[in-house]
Amino acid sequence: MEEYENLSQAKDKRYFLETYGCQMNEYDSSLVAELLANRGFSPTSDPGAAQLILVNTCSVRDKAEETALEKLRSIAHHRRRDPSVRLGVLGCMAENRKETILERIPEVDILLGPDHYDRLGELLDHPDQKLSSALGPDIAQTYEGLFAAPPTGVQAFVAVQRGCDMKCSYCIVPTTRGPERSRPLRDVLEEVRRLVDKGVVEVMLLGQTVNAYRADDGNFGELLAALDKIPGLRRVRFMSPHPRYFTDNLCKTMADLPSVSRHMHIPLQSGSSRVLRSMRRQYSKDQFLRIAERLREHMPDVALTTDIIAGYPGETREEHLETMSVLDSVRFDAAYMFAYSPRPGTLSADMVETITETEKQARLAEIIELQRKHTYQRLDESVDSVEDVLLEGASRRNGSEWIGKTTHFRKVVLDPGPEAKAGQIVSTRILARRGQILWGERA
Ligand code: SAM
Ligand code: SF4
């Protein structure tokens, strides 16, 4: 029993926490950090110095899972060497790959799913002899009243919605994160006000279909309008919206709100209506094109970014070329591009993959190549324009150079002068592009 000592009473309480995956996982890790801080724990970047070792995991693609398993394997010896150390797996893999984790890394003694982070303290106070776990969806869980650790910079993530009600055929998220639920609007506003008081000027609202946000006290448009009124909050971004919720009404609301950034992410996945149907994406190619057009009608200078999956089961060469053609007609500013990765337990995992891994990678490479061309074109088109650049921090290479972003989420390097401060918005003339970065000077 001695080895399962009550960690909350240990003298030197340090924890190591490594995070994989999306922004939502980053946010969840800061919830956990805050929870641990409230219990007197302090962070360390050295797993060898920690009494509590945690890995927050991602299940979206096979590679993400393998990376996390590799990390766990490489740190498990700290747990073997010192039996009072506790090793925990948080997030989607805890929910989804419990057996694999325990089989491959038997040292793991805590498993915590995305709806149970608030039970970490309880698990540490009452350690089970073998394994402490809290798993499964909790549809009431919105972490009401629990706020994430304060960020170190001028930007912060704020989760406004958890889970997902879509059933995209390829996606494990609804299984690992449970059904969709929205945090109360008043709770979100309180969190954002606290952040602004600590110097944050830009927030990124997080949710799997964030523009479908609908709490008892407001919908997404109302949330954006309420945030726009918070003094000191300069920019609001959100990730990841679903194309079908970009209604005309929402587009109009966003266009009228100065704080809403002129960058919208609209995940396409495929440019073939047949593939989209098989993916259960709930829009056709033409509907998607219409949504992109609508966003540009309301916000003519909006930057559009997207997600693409190459080599979905049954995707023909012609269907792949349809994706390339949608990329050509929308000319996105940037994209996250992935090779299809079958996820056990999803609908598409039972579909026969009709192309070889080499062909899948070749299609992905074609998509990446085309997108790179569009990204450069878009950036080149912004040369000579004058943009509001939100300063994020001084460049590590050269102290007088600062890095910031335009409302379109374009990275700009400039020398704003000696009075520069993070969070300041500087009117900047864009002079040139180098790679994916713009260079500018005070306008
Ligand atoms: N909720 C967001 C949406 O609907 O766009 C995305 C969430 S998902 C974590 C992020 C991206 O991962 C998806 O948009 C998709 O492009 C990609 N993705 C999800 N499952 C995948 C799979 N099985 N194989 C390859 N890419 C996948
Ligand atoms: Fe996954 Fe689709 Fe939900 Fe996005 S909308 S998280 S891709 S199921």
Task: Report strand order across the widest sheet.
Answer: 2-1-3-4-5-6
Helix count, per DSSP? 13
The percentage of residues in β strands lies in 15-25%
Based on secondary structure, the structural category is alpha/beta
Word description of this protein:
- This protein is α/β, with parallel strands linked by helices and 443 residues long.
- Helix content is 34%, strand content 22%.
- The chain contains 13 helices and 21 strands.
- The protein has helices at residues 23-38, 62-81, 92-96, 98-104, 120-125, 173-177, 185-197, 220-228, 248-256, 273-279, 285-298, 317-330, 357-381; strands at 14-19, 42-43, 52-57, 86-91, 110-112, 132-134, 155-159, 161-162, 181-182, 202-206, 214-215, 218-219, 235-239, 263-265, 303-310, 334-339, 386-394, 402-405, 411-414, 425-434, 437-442.
- Strands 2-1-3-4-5-6 form a 6-stranded parallel beta sheet, with helices on both faces.
- α8 packs parallel to α9 and α12 runs parallel beside α13.
- The protein is globular, with a radius of gyration of 23 Å.
- The protein starts with 13 loop residues before the first strand and ends with a strand.
- The model has no long low-confidence stretch (mean pLDDT 94).
Main features:
single chain; 443 residues; alpha/beta; 6-stranded parallel sheet; 5-stranded mixed beta barrel; 13 helices; globular; binds S-adenosylmethionine; binds iron/sulfur cluster
List strands and helices in order, with pairings.
Layout: E1 14-19, H1 23-38, E2 42-43, E3 52-57, H2 62-81, E4 86-91, H3 92-96, H4 98-104, E5 110-112, H5 120-125, E6 132-134, E7 155-159, E8 161-162, H6 173-177, E9 181-182, H7 185-197, E10 202-206, E11 214-215, E12 218-219, H8 220-228, E13 235-239, H9 248-256, E14 263-265, H10 273-279, H11 285-298, E15 303-310, H12 317-330, E16 334-339, H13 357-381, E17 386-394, E18 402-405, E19 411-414, E20 425-434, E21 437-442
Parallel strand pairs: 1-2, 1-3, 3-4, 4-5, 5-6, 7-10, 10-13, 14-15, 15-16, 19-21
Antiparallel strand pairs: 8-9, 11-12, 17-18, 17-20, 18-19, 20-21
